[in-house]
Design a protein that fits this description.
The structure is a homodimer. By secondary structure, chain A is an alpha/beta fold. Chain A has helices at about 20-30, 45-50, 75-80, 85-95, 110-120, 155-170, 195-205, 230-255, 260-280, 305-320, 325-330; strands at about 5-10, 35-40, 60-65, 100-105, 135, 140-145, 180-185, 210-215, 225-230, 290, 295-300. Chain A starts with a strand and ends in a 7-residue tail after the last helix. At the A-B interface, helix 8 and helix 9 of A face helix 8 and helix 9 of B.
């Protein structure tokens, strides 16, 4: 029998909370037998939402948490003060081993700060990266790191490459994933101090498939599976992906309205265009995992709908069942902690 | 009478050289009375190309240069060794005051290295940035710096903001251009060490219209006119713009071929789509100026066609006639040198 994976879902965080969070989690628990859902948040709100659905009652629990951390709050302060918030309550469950993973669409800062301060880093991990999947021409790539801690050191980037490789191979199912480091040219001697110092370390690293420098231009074309960069650069890449995509779609739509001929054409291509735009939509991929913690923390988009939450929960199950933390633990030469 | 601006055009650099370079320069000289073109490159090649066109002979010259710097060569070494190359010859003409500006589609590294080593920085300028125009929802923004020198200091970024403002106001015609610094959040306290140290300096800077942090997501929407960043980040932004755009277009085209209905629709929207893609095409804007030099150096795309070269030449004329270097000189508290 498959081991049951216990996933905490923050019912209060996100623009569409609690509706989409609860709907998504219920979709996940109904789709597989090996998931247990623990909702954190206001009991009465969650209970009243749950009445809408049919689901295996023995695999869905609620742990009441009265407070909600707002996006505007200082993350570290909020984590420290709002001990009875849905985020702190959820992350403490993971820390204490009462759950395996935590999914939230709430304040990114608070979720990440709590990941570090409450759940805690795995032994041997210097810095836990946030690693969303981004769409490429033929699939997805893992962008690692997009987190809150900028000004990384070379040794951090080497760990990102290792963690990202394990994740892509085991959770996403890409065999021998190609690892590239973001640089301003393809040649080995190019780059800033950080990249120049990191390059030889990656080249020597035996447990990754390092293919060298990648230019930002080639990331969407899918030249590598694990895109290693420092968090400031990762944040720029992630957000520009969204920004350029959104602006292009807007311009194309406006362009299609410019003549009668193109307006008729637009009607005919609408379904195909919608499908294409969807494959380039990061929210399909179930949120961004924060790697290198003692349990898994997944940050879903603030605007997440039920599909993203469902995929995030299933990602947690794969993560646990594929023993990702045990594998990472063995890479960093320590026995994995619970 | 308008002053005549002397623009050197590298006839040898670029994927489409010499055809498109010569065609574009001739289009420019035929469009206005205040341009003089000086071609550098192999005399016999240029002469034979010129036979195709009608143009004012007194305003078109050739200066023979036997060598060509290839893109693969080490830029600094190539600049030092190939003294008789079209790039070195052209930049030396600017240095010696025999021309006002230099346009090249050749090796970016060599053009930039020559800009610094041959043409030379204006007095008071710490680092000359490369500043391409990038398309936005409603127009263009200046991305400054995308050059070869990474790991900038805060004082460099302040000068980039000042130079960029002058350029956008005087050459592109945006009144009181909004200056933003690329950051990973909108709040003042966010960012890496460089941005945190630069922010207060920009805030205090009196001759710019500083609007604060901008997130990469908002750049394509056009939230600011001058996008200030360090060259590594600028390079990532510039290239990801191209990459995401190209991949989306590819995916949309493939999506349109997916059914008979959408294939018919695709035929109808083709002209409108083409027009839209064109407005998001950076090559429309006549190459990237390298600012803060004693004369203007413009780097056009390696794949530049005649329109880009024509626009690049006209940009040089505006630059000179708007006295950009004199204005920048007065900002940096020194008298501008020729």
């Amino acid at each position: 029998m498959q081991e049951i994976v216990r996933v905490v879902v923050d019912a209060m965080g996100g623009d569409n909370a609690p509706d989409e969070q609860i709907k998504g989690a219920i979709q996940a628990v109904n789709s597989r037998d090996d998931i247990e859902i623990i909702f954190t948040g206001r009991q009465e709100v969650i209970t009243s939402q749950l009445e809408k659905y049919t689901y295996p009652q023995e695999r869905v629990k609620i742990i009441h948490a009265d407070e909600v951390i707002e996006t505007g709050e200082s993350p570290v302060e909020a984590i420290r003060k709002k001990k009875n918030s849905s985020i702190v309550t959820g992350e403490m469950l993971v820390k204490n081993g009462e759950a395996d993973a935590f999914v939230s669409s709430g304040s990114t800062g608070a979720v990440l700060a709590g990941g570090q301060l409450l759940v805690g880093r795995m032994k041997g991990v210097q810095r836990p990266p946030l690693a969303p999947l981004i769409p490429t021409e033929n699939g997805v790539a893992l962008l690692i790191d997009c987190g809150a801690n900028v000004d990384a050191r070379p040794s951090h980037l080497v760990q990102f490459a290792q963690m990202g490789s394990v994740y892509m191979e085991r959770v996403v199912g890409i065999k021998n994933p190609r690892v590239g480091i973001v640089n301003i040219g393809a040649e080995e001697e190019k780059g800033n101090v950080l990249v120049k110092e990191t390059y030889p370390l990656l080249k020597e690293c035996k447990n990754i498939n390092f293919i060298g420098n990648v230019e930002a231009r080639d990331i969407p074309a899918g030249v590598c599976d694990v895109v290693v960069c420092e968090a400031f650069v990762g944040n720029v890449i992630l957000k520009l992906y969204e920004g350029v995509g959104a602006t292009m779609i807007k311009k194309i739509k406006a362009g299609l309205m410019s003549s009668l001929r193109s307006r008729i054409g637009a009607l005919l291509i609408k379904p195909a265009l919608k499908e294409t735009v969807k494959t380039f939509d990061a929210t399909q991929y179930g949120g961004a995992p924060m790697l290198g913690l003692k349990g898994l923390v997944v940050k879903a988009h603030g605007s997440a709908k039920s599909t993203e939450i469902q995929n995030a929960v299933i990602q947690c199950v794969e993560y646990k069942q594929q023993h990702i933390n045990e594998i990472m633990g063995s890479i960093f030469n320590v026995s994995p902690e619970k």
